[in-house]
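Quick start: what a row looks like.
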Amino acid sequence: SNFRIKVGEALAEESPVEADMILPIPESGKFGAMGYAKKSKIPFMEAIIRDREYINLKTLFEPSGMRELSLEKKLITVKELIEGQKVILVDEAIVTGLTLIKVIEKLRECNVKEIHVRIPSPPMVSNCYNGVLNENLRLAAREYTEKDKEIIEEELRKQFKVESLKFLSLDKFVKIIGEDKSVCMECFRTAQKKINPVIKYE
């Protein structure tokens, strides 16, 4: 959690933006959002929550392929807190982008004024072959390389239909990790294996 707070702080320094509040995607974006809020002095609000009763009961009986989509459908937004506001939406990474799409849709339904996505990690441009993630996932940024950060940010900004979208730079991410050789960062670097094309979200 301390590391996630630090990368959130670093992202606030690298990619500041004016906003009324910072919202984490539950639960993965919480500590990064706390760090961004601490550095930027913008209020941290938990205005996106999960229906835990639905999670505990429903997902136990669903096929694994449907589980993620079902959880996304049960995200709850607190409209009275966010309507008409400029919000910074924080998650720790963009993998396939499906959860982010669902959250953005719900925020738009609440008539937020602006959505600025901030990701306190570099773009995931390669699949994981070390067993942490399914190596067949279609990553949102997988047709690019680690040198394409600005291109990735603009392409995903347009696909997700948000006002801005920024990742933490790889250099800053590595600097915060320091000398910890146990941390694998291959997903942030160009893969040598054949990859599938990126999903386009229309």
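That is the whole record. Confidence is low (pLDDT under 50) at residues 53-62, 192-202. The first helix runs from residue 2 to 14.
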